[in-house]
Specification:
Helix content is 22%, strand content 26%. By secondary structure, the protein is an alpha+beta fold. The chain has a single domain, classed as SRCR-like domain (Mac-2 Binding Protein), CATH 3.10.250.10. The two termini are 33 Å apart. It comes from Strongylocentrotus purpuratus.
Length: 147
């Protein structure tokens, strides 16, 4: 009987971990929004090798924006503006030709070109406007918790 209870507890913990991962997103790639009017909008920037850089808007659409918003703990995106709608960035352009279906956990799962390979300038920086409640995800000892 105790073995069955232990198996049930382990099964529940696995379901909880899968749920939290799907809600909070995988921690593959750091992403932030810059120059927006609040924490739910702005130019999309990703960190690669310790340097923040922008994302080119070539092929950028609502599916891509939805993934960014989910990574940040929002429900989804209401818009995916391009053409540096939130101002032109500077420095590196890390991503181009991002092609998400909207179900991915991270932009890293949508990359069709290598980091830093692009045919853009900062007048083509991608942006997002997220909607829904922001979820705070904390990571303790390799486990993710949602508050």
């Amino acid at each position: 009987m105790e073995g069955k209870r232990f198996e049930d507890i382990v099964r529940i913990l696995i379901y909880v971990q899968l749920f939290l991962t799907s809600v909070c997103g995988a921690e593959y790639l750091d992403v932030r929004l810059v120059n927006g009017s609040n924490n739910a909008s702005g130019r999309v920037e990703v960190s690669y090798n310790g340097t923040w850089g922008t994302v080119c808007d070539d092929g950028w659409d609502l599916n891509d924006a939805n993934v960014v918003c989910k990574m940040l703990g929002f429900f989804d995106a209401s818009s995916a503006p391009g053409m540096a709608a939130y101002g032109a960035g500077y420095g590196e352009i890390h991503l181009d030709e991002v092609d998400c279906t909207g179900s991915e956990s991270s932009l890293e799962d949508c990359i069709k070109s290598e980091f830093g390979v692009h045919n853009c300038d900062h007048s083509e920086d991608a942006g997002v406007t997220c909607r829904g409640t922001m979820t705070v995800c904390l990571i303790f000892f390799n486990s993710t918790y949602r508050y």
